[in-house]
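Record 1 of the preview.
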Amino acid sequence: MREVARRDKDARFTALLHHVTLWRLREAYWPIRPKAAPGVDGVRWSDYGLDLEVNLQDLHVRVQSGRYRALPSRRAYIPKADGRQRPLGIAALEDKIVQRAVVVVLNAVYEVDFRGFTYGFRPGRGPHDALDALSVGLYRRPVNWVLDADIRDFFGQLDHAWLRKFLEHRIADKRVLRLIQKWLAAGVVEDGEWTACEEGSPQGASVSPLLANVYLHHVFDLWVDWRRTQARGEVITVRFADDFIVGFECGEDARRFQDELRQRLAKFGLELHPGKTRLIEFGRYAARGRQRRGLGKPETFDFWGSRTSVRGRGRERSGSGASRSQSGRGRS
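->
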């Protein structure tokens, strides 16, 4: 699959579900965190494992025959740094298993397509890799301006119709598309009340990071590749999920990019977070220019828990809150 995807960028895969084998379901079960909170089914990892082979064989038959039914996610909340609550969707155990297995299959296709400047929730990539790439770009390229951007409520705003269109660029297997639609339409349960999800993908579901990357691949990454060819000066990009940094040599390019990005996101039901998006003068060249003009040091910005600032010739990184487990290899 990976070789076909690499050779033919227009290939659409018609037979993917048979790759969700019993062996792959078993491999998806073991990395799940044993003490993870259960979903609406109330089934814990250890309970399912008491008769693991029988349970997985039955699950495999249901998935392949189309009798598998997705359960709604259980709504939970975790505190955010700003004091607000971040909503999470805790999937039922079998939904976690099937989603993980499907993600492994789809990664064989999408890892060929995804751009090198994206790092969020991809195999073998994590926040530290994104920070290293950003460090190299800021030091080696003539960056004078930085757009530090965040998309407002990204996981909650994914447009299902657009997502289906994006998926169909590569996936022609109707059974896999129906599986994904089942997860999107399953809804959430909070305080015993079920709510339909007309848009978005539950943050915390195993399949959500891949769907988010597919969405932003079409909305942002491909557009940025084209947009960079229209700039007068150099442009660098580093994206981790819905957080991204775009560095510019020319201030005019930066301001025009920000305006056009707002229009681009609006077309697909997204918007920049006004409180978390800033265009600042930044970089070692900017530091020298500001010094000549009698201005203070360039502003700093935070990227995945790491404050970025300029010190002399290079860049200083401090207060890193990033974790290797965010690469997608950790348990959930």
